[in-house]
Amino acid sequence: MNMKNLLTINAPGGMLTPNDLLKLVEPEGVDGFILGRRQNILIDYPGTPQELSRRVNVDPVPLVHPNIICSHASGGIDLEKNDWAYINEDYQTIFDSFTFKPTLSVSICSFQQSMFPLFSSKLNFIASNIEGLWHLVIMLNQERVLLPHLFKTTQVAPAVQAMQDFIANDQFITSHHLAELLEASLPLNENKSADLILPPLQNRDFEGFTPMKNGRLALNIFSNHKPWKKEFIRDFANLAKEHDLNRLYVTAGRSLLMKHISKKDLHSWEALLGRHNISIRHSEQDLAWIVPSHKSNSIKLKEQVIQELNHEGFACHGLNIAIDPRDSDCGAPIIINTSKNFMSLSCRVIYKPSFDYRHSGFKTAGKNLNFDELLTCLRDLQQQFHTRKIDSAGVRIQPISLEDNQPEQYQCPDCLSEYHKNAGDPQNGISPGTDFMDLPKSWVCNLCECSKLKFQPI
Question: Dihedral (C-alpha) 349, 350, 356, 358: value to the nearest 10 degrees?
Fold first, then answer.
């Protein structure tokens, strides 16, 4: 794929129409496309696609405006779950209120569904138990914080816009201070947040044909990191139009999802898959890995690791592993980061001790690992995963308190000098008792002139 002409096709929640697909593969030089982790499409396209749906945006790669991840696609598929935001069309209301392109990554999900990771963005809105109200979990500088307020559906987009502005003005702002600024800018006091209680983790990919609550079928197909070819895309879109199916989805699992297929049309869709040799029964190993579709070296490593592990057997059963993800909160409890040292592979492996991606905090399982050492490390982690103690209560996340005291000491990362609230910095006009956050932006370390933005709380 030619990176020079590479575009990302962003549609909030991955919602597209069959006509969108047909327009994307219309030019003679387009052979197909690949799917991204943010429900987006990556395509080598000459120029700019025209006549796409109103919510669809086109950006060059690398990403400037990350696509909005949303669990709307899972609505109506899981027979045991009820998603009020899907039923009441709150997702659609939120999408329509975004009159700007977010520069921060945003996720909008139901906590009940298992198709989409809850914490895959800097700003993660999660449906509460109260209809029309959302929790907000912020991920800044590897710190995960649940804000002490619930947000109305109509406040989601304004909150994103406000936080974007705050972060643009202060690159090293803390999650705590961001919550304070947000409280001052939006009327949130009436909607206090309780603990966010997440049910025990379920890993379901819904591959193939799945019954829906309305008696119809959903078809979810994976490409296993291979491009979707133009001929298949055309036939897929045309069959959808023939059956009056006007919406399809790109999922965060890099699959194509078509919902509301009539059971009487099942044979037509099975024939389509058969003609194009599309499998709906990928191995557990293939679906367990999270790898960027545009990183060929990462994909090659995945294939080599799977091949070696399969010699002795390597049952995942819900264990997800990521290689070189864009963000550490990608939905995988094990992450492999690779680098090249004098043309040889060197890997660092981090993992979450609970093996539940929804918990915060990673530990290091190994570093500077060669290929054989990487295999040994993964086998050890797999055994830990299958012998772990499973918490039937799920995950409880408590909101921060804005009444908590701010840190009174901050340290310069360059010369290690400290700022103490009680002492202030009188020689530069800073009175004792001044909070670090209240220092002017022009304030610098009085020893080495390091910027205030680089200081760390201690």
Answer: -130
Q: Residue 161 — φ and ψ, nearest 5°?
A: -60, -45
b (16+ CB within 10 A) / e for 364-393 = ebbeebeeebbbebbeebbeebeeeeeeee
Q: Which tokens belong to 148?
A: 């002490």
What's the one-letter identity of residue 341? N
Residue 66, token pair as written in the block: 């990350």
Question: Same domain, yes or no, for 229 and 313?
Answer: no
Q: State pLDDT tens for residues 166-180.
A: 888 776 677 777 877
Taking only the tens place, the pLDDT of each residue in 127-151 is 999 999 999 999 876 678 899 889 9
pLDDT at 324: 93
Whether 154 maps to a domain, the answer reads: no
Q: Which residues contact 336 (CB under 8 A, 6 or more apart)?
A: 301, 321, 322, 323, 324, 347, 348, 349, 374
How confident is the model over 343-379, as pLDDT tens digits?
Answer: 788 999 999 999 998 888 889 999 999 999 999 999 9
* 3-class DSSP state of 450: coil
Residue 357 token pair: 């991606």
Query: Residue 358's domain spans which residues?
Result: 290-385
Residue 408 DSSP class: S
Chosen domain end from 282, 307, 341 = 282
The residues with which 140 forms a beta bridge, in sequence order, are: 143
In whole angstroms, give the CA distance from residue 302 to residue 287.
11
Q: What CATH number is associated with residue 204?
A: 3.90.480.10
* Domain shared by 217 and 298, yes or no: no
DSSP E strands, 40-113: 41-44, 57-60, 69-70, 106-109
